[in-house]
Design brief:
Blueprint: H1 14-32, E1 41-46, H2 51-63, E2 67-72, H3 76-85, H4 88-91, H5 98-104, E3 107-112, H6 125-134, H7 136-147, E4 153-157, H8 161-166, H9 171-181, H10 189-209, E5 212-219, E6 223-227, E7 246-249, E8 257-262, E9 266-268, E10 271-281, E11 284-292, H11 294-300, E12 310-316, H12 330-333, E13 342-348, H13 364-370, E14 378-383, E15 387-393, E16 398-403, E17 406-407
Parallel strand pairs: 1-2, 1-3, 3-4
Antiparallel strand pairs: 5-6, 5-15, 6-8, 7-12, 8-10, 9-10, 10-11, 12-13, 13-14, 15-16, 16-17
Helix pairs in contact: 1-2, 5-7
Length: 410
């Protein structure tokens, strides 16, 4: 595979890159709930293929008087060699300085631009799981800094031949989908995002005002019930993902019962999975099948005790999202708008930010008491079928909150 690491882009205009960088910096500030100050530290993580965007972000951080740090993600061949050759000690190794680095940064911009998507298919899944578990201390540092509003992060994508190929698009067509989805072709793109932020805040307030006790999701192939749980709030467009249109929460995992089906393929940890069907009983997956990638699916479910439990339930309103095709990137695919919006569940870790109380008081014991799931993984599994979502309210009333791909608050 021949990769060109030019700093200039033929896929985006300079104005589009500037707008993209501006939105991403706004995203991290919004997620932190605190404006950046001179001399604060921003970490940029990226694949080499995204250098045109890295260049513009780096420049904008310098203009703001802050300190940019740049770290390169593994190229595909090196990532394969790592998992193929590393022993358990190497898989669990945390580089000297990593904990110190993540304890001191004030923001992270992570640009995903992989050279390959299925290069790890032959790797033993437990090796990947071992490395995932080893990252828990770094994740804890980031979560604590986020709770104190000292730091936050955002995630975005840059077009690559591998993504475009698996999405059945040309490279330029893929880039154009990113432009449309992120409103980069709008003359005032940041203003659009700020307006979307207000609309999603209004929808979250409406959901919270309903005092929902239980949700029931029905489609041709889904029949799933669960309790939202005590001391929960709804999340969405925090700035941590660009784009992001979903509205979600972390339900009480112990109450999940029924069947969930994903009609959307996924690429995860270098593996391709298609047509996942999960059967839940009292909160745990008791049966998991897939047309493609079933062996990987079941090994992934054995990562740890929480990997068979739900950490998130999410709905995307098609009026917010301009994403209208499969993008071979979960960042986009979990925000699919299309004709009917989407809903997804995530297996694995819950979001501590879905706790309605003081996040600093959410101890491990409290999380267990409230049914917040814990796991080293967080895997979004998406359904784009027409569906109805019923809510049972604390008043005893039953109400449709989502139908025909949109929330019923308008």
């Amino acid at each position: 595979m021949s990769i060109n690491y030019e700093l200039k882009s033929e896929l985006f205009s300079e104005k589009e890159l500037e707008q993209y960088a501006e939105i991403l910096i706004w995203g991290v500030e919004t997620a932190r709930q605190k404006e950046f100050q001179p001399n604060e530290i921003i970490l940029i993580k990226s694949n080499m293929t995204a250098m045109p965007l890295v260049r513009v972000i780096h420049k904008n951080i310098l203009i703001r008087g802050m300190h940019p740090i740049f770290r390169i993600n593994y190229p595909a061949e090196m990532e394969y060699n790592f998992y193929e050759l590393a022993n358990n000690e190497q898989l669990s190794f945390i580089s000297p300085g990593d904990k110190e680095l993540f304890s001191h940064i004030n923001g992270l911009i992570n640009i995903r631009a992989p050279e390959a998507l299925t290069h790890l298919e032959s790797i033993e899944t437990e090796k990947i799981n071992t490395n995932l578990r080893a990252q828990t201390p770094i994740k804890s540092i980031m979560n604590q800094a986020q709770q104190k509003k000292q730091s936050s992060w955002t995630l975005c994508a840059y077009p690559t031949p591998s993504r475009a190929k698996h999405a059945n698009l040309s490279l330029q067509a893929y880039a154009d989908k990113i432009k449309t989805s992120c409103y980069l072709n709008h003359p005032q793109s940041l203003s659009v995002w700020k307006d979307l932020y207000k609309q999603i805040v209004d929808t979250k307030k409406w959901l919270l005002s309903l005092n929902i006790e239980e949700l029931h999701v029905e489609s041709n192939q889904i029949d799933l019930k669960f309790s939202v749980g005590h001391q929960r709030k709804w999340l969405g467009l925090s700035g941590r993902n660009i784009p992001s249109f979903e509205i979600f929460t972390s339900p009480d995992w112990r109450t999940v019962n029924g069947t969930f089906y994903s009609d959307q393929p996924a690429f995860i940890s270098g593996n391709y999975i298609k047509d996942i069907r999960l059967v839940f009983n009292n909160g745990c997956v008791i049966k998991a099948t897939a047309e493609k990638g079933e062996a990987f699916l079941n090994k992934r479910l054995n990562t740890d005790a929480g990997a068979v439990r739900v950490g998130e339930f999410s709905l995307t309103d098609r009026r917010f999202s301009k994403i209208d095709c499969f993008m071979a990137d979960i960042l986009y695919d979990e925000n699919y708008g299309g004709n009917y919006g989407n809903c997804h569940v995530a297996l694995g870790a819950a979001f501590e930010t879905a706790y309605s109380g003081d996040p600093m008081s959410l101890t491990k014991e409290k999380k267990k008491e409230l049914g917040f799931n814990d796991s080293a993984i967080h895997w979004d599994i998406v359904n784009t079928e027409p569906k109805i979502v019923f809510a049972k309210l604390s008043s005893g009333k039953k109400q449709i909150i989502y139908e025909n791909g949109q929330f019923k608050n308008h």
